[in-house]
Amino acid sequence: MDHLTPQDPTSIGEYRLLGLLGEGGMGRVYLARSGSGRTVAVKVVHGEFAQLPEFRRRFALEVDAARRVGGTWTAPVLDADTGAQTPWVATGYVPGPDLHTVVARDYGPLPEHSVRVLANRLAQALGAIHGAGLIHRDLKPSNVLVTVDGPRVIDFGIARALETVTGDGLRTRTGMVVGSPGFMSPEQVRGLKLTPASDVFCLGSVLAYVATGRQPFGTADSGAHALLFRVAEEEPDLDGVPEGILGLVRECLAKDPAARPTPEQVAARTVTERGGGPWLPGEVLEQLGRHAARLLDLDHPQAQAPVPVPRPAVTPTPTAVDPPSSPPPGFGPPPTTTAPSAKPAPRRRHRTAVLGAVALVVSGVVVSVAHPWEGGNGEEKETPNSVPQAFLGAWEGEIKGMDGGLARIEITKGVGDEPIARTYTSNARNLCVRNSAMVAPGTATQSSGPEKLTLGQGLARESVEQGTCADLPEHTLEKRSDGKLNWATKDGTYTAVLSKATSGDAPVPKAFLGTWKDKTVPYDRQVTFRQGPFGGDVVRWIITDSAHCEWSATLVSAKDKQLSHGPVTLDAAKSDASCEKSWESATYTSVGADKLRMRGLRGTAQGSGAPTYLNRTDR
């Protein structure tokens, strides 16, 4: 959270402002407290929108409808003045991170129980929103806040005030559209009239993301038009979604809105027993507790007298931005250019029409991404720790004294005692993932010697094989003159020289993607690589001989011509009982356009001395 500046008001209505949570295309968002002591998020509209009569009219209608939304799992609209010189709306403040932050930064994919509870609560929230006559239109992980007792859906309905109606499509006056490409419905992509079923499709995308750490239709790395086409035309990638909820997620993602379940049906199918324990893993609950505790320190000791609300400065017309590659804000529904045909068009023409609609979205027709309340999702935006720029990013190297052992450390700017480092260590039969905070939050040491960053105990959050990972001792990163880092634990267990490494949501080199087969054996032995984040299951082995066996493995390293995964674990639900439970980590090297060399950390993935060569089968 940022401090107020002299240009910011100190109060709005009865609410005393405590700080600036953020700013987006629609306005500024402040953390505030009412006279009775309730903490709220006050969203103040930008002056350029306040001057538009049509915007004011729709804003008033949407706020009025949003006030009627009840239920436990939404952030309520508490107060508003849509007739003020600068319109504003106050919503309940939810002291928790958004779902995208939890999955992408703090923890990773959530277990099946958590996803089931999430599905139930979000379905109830959608039922309340639809019951008030609203459609959310932008349900995505960053619009779901996470608390100890359950999720809260935010920003429902109000963002539509940005839009002006053009035929059956919706496009903003400023050239922006509302929506995020990886979490839109096919109807939004085509610019069709939306129904509550559109939100159910978005719910399916959110659940798939939370269960796997991946967007079900991929990222926009290859272009937003390609992503939107996949949403409209192709089947989702649901590999890794737990079997117990896979069918429900698949139904939510049906292309035909009529084939999707209603929110009420989703809620009924995901009921969990009361008293069944916390809905989130313990590590996430600990972070939520620290997050909520910091809220107590936000108030200023002295009250400030209310002053009139000044008109915010007019925001310049947005300019073009690069399409996002991760779940936060993205493109929205394109305008409909022609009325729907009475008869279904032939398949080829249908695909062309979809491509045409997508082209409108990513061409000059849409010049920006609408994210109405950037930073206004209820999560405080505190000043990050002072992590030196030289340490930020991902680093990889071989662990000394551990034959074939790999270390990967991802450093981000955290807040206070939040973790800033995620450490992966792997050897032949073991993969450990741990999170660490700075020893002294907000500081890094630099004396006359090399610059150092000291990290506290690395708390083990997952392991392969299960239960084999202990917490990592305090460890230090030291900058070298060649741009690399020396890494060592305090007790000397781990030491390595780390080099800058690949990061992002799509690190698997394109040359590896697809299916490869070992043609030297008389039975079917193949491996498939798909795109996914570090720490995600991107490798799938299938061997069919006297038994059918399937295994998955976690990505731990990726370079232009080399990829490594941790120990391979059996997918018991898809395999025969006689299959081997696990086997060792392996590294794959590209040795030609259609050939890979595979070597396990003890020779090959199944123990012989020579490497195995794999040939591509999907070209």
UniProtKB/TrEMBL annotation:
- Please list where the region (Disordered) is annotated: 303-349, 599-619
Q: Does the keyword Kinase apply?
A: yes
Q: Where is the composition biased (Pro residues)?
A: 324-337
| GO MF annotations, alphabetized | ATP binding; protein serine/threonine kinase activity
Q: Which InterPro entries match?
A: Kinase-like_dom_sf, Prot_kinase_dom, Protein_kinase_ATP_BS, Ser/Thr_kinase_AS
Tell me the residue numbers annotated for binding ATP: K43
Q: Which Pfam families match?
A: Pkinase
Residues in Protein kinase domain copies = 15-280
Q: Which UniProt keywords apply?
A: ATP-binding, Kinase, Nucleotide-binding, Serine/threonine-protein kinase, Transferase
What's the protein here called? Putative serine/threonine protein kinase
Q: Which organism is it from?
A: Streptomyces formicae
The lineage, from the top, is:
Bacteria, Bacillati, Actinomycetota, Actinomycetes, Kitasatosporales
